[in-house]
Every structure is written in structure tokens, then in C-alpha cells.
Amino acid sequence: EQLVESGGGLVQPGGSLNLSCVAEGLMFSISAMGWYRQAPGHERELIAQITSDGITVYADSVEGRFTASRDNAKNTLYLQMTDLKPEDTAVYYCKAYFGGHWGQGTQVTVTS
Question: How many CB atoms lie within 10 A of CB 68?
């Protein structure tokens, strides 16, 4: 049972990145999911949540710029990130609320 993230990287301000989180061996389709991030020296923060049927809620800091989605047939969670800012630099994690599983994290760095 694990979550495997991918898609992080280095991007310039104003750029975009798409993160993926593949669930292996989990009851993905019935689990609400979350995207979190943790910047150096900061606590891990919740930035997006999505219910099993696709209803989303976002933190104010990413509202209008980030979009969470899921494909239950592929056991995959997505985070589309646009208009990235230096303050979005962090390690990004996905979490499955059913079972409390975390991904390993993927680094996103926004810098010119």
C-alpha cells in the first residue's frame, strides 16, 4: 500500500507544473485525498482536498491557480499548478485519508 508522486521540478515564476500521485494497493476510489506542501522551516500545510466524487476545496494561497483532480479508473490523483510563485517552493505530498497514507513527496522549486 503506497502513494507514488511524480512531476516536481524547477520552474520559473509564472510557469506551470503538473503533479501526479498514483495509489497502489489502496482503496483509492472511495478515499478522499489531499495535497499538502512543506517549505523549509515551515509546517506541512494543506493546500487542496478532493472527495471521492471529485468535489474540491482549496487553500486561499492557491485558489484560482491550482486544480486538483482524480481519475479513479487509473487510481491517480493530479495537481495542476499554474502561475507559480517563488513562495510555492516546497516539497509536495499527497495523502489518502482512507488509511492515512502519505506519498514520499516531490520537490517543486520556483525560481528565476
Answer: 23
